[in-house]
Amino acid sequence: MIKAISLHKKFRNLLAVNNISFTIELGTVVGFLGPNGAGKSTTMRILAGFYQADSGKASICGYDVFKNRFDAQAFLGYLPEAPGGFQVLTVREFLVYCGESRGVWGHQLEVAINRVTELIDLGLALDKKIATLSKGWRQRAWLAQAILHDPPALILDEPTDGLDPNQKEHIRTLIRSICPKKAIILSTHILEEAEEICDRAIIINKGKIVADDTPRNLGDANGRIAQSFRSLTNEEADRD
Ligand code: ADP
After folding, report:
1. Ligand 1 atom, smallest distance to 38 CA
2. Ligand 1 mean position to 39 CA, how many Å?
3. Model confidence pLDDT, tens digit, residues 184-195
């Protein structure tokens, strides 16, 4: 379970995260939607233990992210936005490094790497250096590290960013297939993606949640949520 209670985070004078609260149960995929700069990545970084909130509480599977960060992170897979680094490693070396950092070793790690390689169709990239990969392959390598230890909670910041249409569809199918056992929050700019794979959509604007409902309830007669999204997040949308 992923829980946020009244999170606040300021950068100088900018209230980037303003009273964000939600609970995501196991077996649920939540789309975290909002315009650029709305506060999605900041909220996700707080939940993943990478930023300290100014106030509020967050927990992963019952572990307080601020008081027991390492316990909380053990139950979490996190795909950061536009991930980089580890350029000199091959994908396999990267996954070994990530697995060992999480306490997965030897045969168990080998089995885990084989599992994610198959799930994400990563075989062709496994022995290539990360520096030589296209954005789509790199994104898949980072997604692989997020699910390597089979965590019950996943925070995925734009998981399909940089992927071609076939790869996007593959990852959406993967997310749906692993969701019965997991609590998943993913940010995306692709509203159709939220309509297709999310049980629930949380729309955030200027740091505040402006909607938290099913895509069906947020959708128009054709099930499209674009109109709701636009009216809730345009410049005229209310701000306290
Ligand atoms: P989103 O992910 O929805 O695009 P972000 O959470 O990245 O939004 O950013 C929310 C706001 O906080 C933006 O105005 C952004 O410029 C600002 N911001 C994010 N990270 C920092 C930071 N490290 N320092 C200062 N401002 C930041």
Report:
1. 3
2. 6
3. 999 999 999 999
**Residues with Cβ within 8 Å of residue 4, at least 6 apart in sequence:** 20, 21, 22, 23, 43, 46, 47, 56, 57, 58
pLDDT tens digits, 148-181: 999 999 999 999 988 889 889 988 998 988 878 8
User: Quick one: which atom of ligand 1 is closest to the CA of 81?
Assistant: 2
Total-model pTM: 0.94
Q: Which residues contact 165 (CB under 8 A, 6 or more apart)?
A: none
CA 191 to ligand 1 centroid distance, Å: 21
For the Cβ of 36 lying below 6 angstroms from any atom of ligand 1, the answer is yes
Q: Is 49 in the pocket of ligand 1 (CB under 6 A)?
A: no
Question: For the domain bounded by 2-233, which CATH number is listed?
Answer: 3.40.50.300
- 10: tokens are 């300021």
Domain boundary assignment for the chain? 2-233
Name the burial class of residue 189, with classes exposed (0-12), middle (13-18) and buried (19+) by CB atoms within 10 angstroms of its CB. Answer: middle
Q: Check if the beta carbon of residue 184 is closer than 8 Å to that of residue 28.
A: yes
Ligand 1 contact, 215 CB (< 6 A):
no
Task: Report residue 199: phi and psi, to 5°.
Answer: -80, -25
pLDDT of 65: 97
Residue 166 Cβ contacting ligand 1 at under 6 Å: no
Task: Give whole-number Cα distances, 133 to 19, 129, 143, 196, in Å.
Answer: 39, 7, 14, 28
Q: What is the pLDDT of residue 234?
A: 85
The stretch 70-74 carries a mean pLDDT of 95
Q: From ligand 1's centre to the CA of 180, what distance in Å?
A: 31
Tell me the three state secondary structure of residue 14: strand
